[in-house]
Amino acid sequence: MASPSRIHGASSRSSGSARATSSRRGGSTSDSEPRIDTLDFVRSGARAYLAAILTDGRVVFTPLAWYPIIERATARDRSKWRLIGGGRGVTWPDLDVDLSVAGMLAGVPDVTLKAAGATDSAEHARALRRVLSGRTRKAG
Asked: Any idea where the domains of the chain sit in the sequence?
C-alpha cells in the first residue's frame, strides 16, 4: 500500500476561529462526544480521503468519493471549511455541504444525493448532476 500524501492545495486548518474554540472544548472535558480538531485531505495510491483529526486523538479516514460535491470541488473551495456545533461537525458554506463526526464514525456517506431522489447507481449519477448544476456560481 502506498504511503499517504496530502492532496495539493488542501488546507489542514479551519478558516476563521472555530478551530481554536473546538480544540479547547473537546478532548479533556467530561463531554465524551467526539469533536473535530482539524481536517486534512490525503491520498493513498489512487484513492483520496477526508481525514478528521478528533480532539480525543483519533483520526477518522473516510473516502472522499463518499462526498462527491467535496471531491469535485476545487482545492480552493475544499479548503474553505469551518467547524460547527463546537466541533461536532464541519461545513463548507460555499459548497452547501455539512458533515457530522457521528456520521463519519458510523460510515454514513453524503445524504444530499438521497435527498435529491437517488435510489440506485444510475439515479445517483443523475442526482449528482442535478445537485452540482444547481450549485453553479452566478456571474457578476
From this structure: 5-109
CB 48 within 8 A of CB 42: yes
Q: How far apart are CA 11 and CA 77, in angstroms?
A: 10
- Cα torsion 93, 97, 98, 102 to 10°: value is -150
User: CA distances (Å), 111 to each of 35, 47, 69, 120, in order?
Assistant: 20, 21, 11, 13
Q: Report the predicted TM-score, pTM, of the whole model to 2 decimal places.
A: 0.65
pLDDT per residue rounded down to tens, the chain (140 residues): 455 666 544 444 444 333 333 333 344 444 688 999 999 999 999 999 999 999 999 999 999 999 988 998 999 999 999 999 999 999 999 888 899 999 999 988 866 555 555 555 565 566 666 666 665 544 34
Domain 5-109 is of which CATH architecture?
A: 2-Layer Sandwich (3.30)
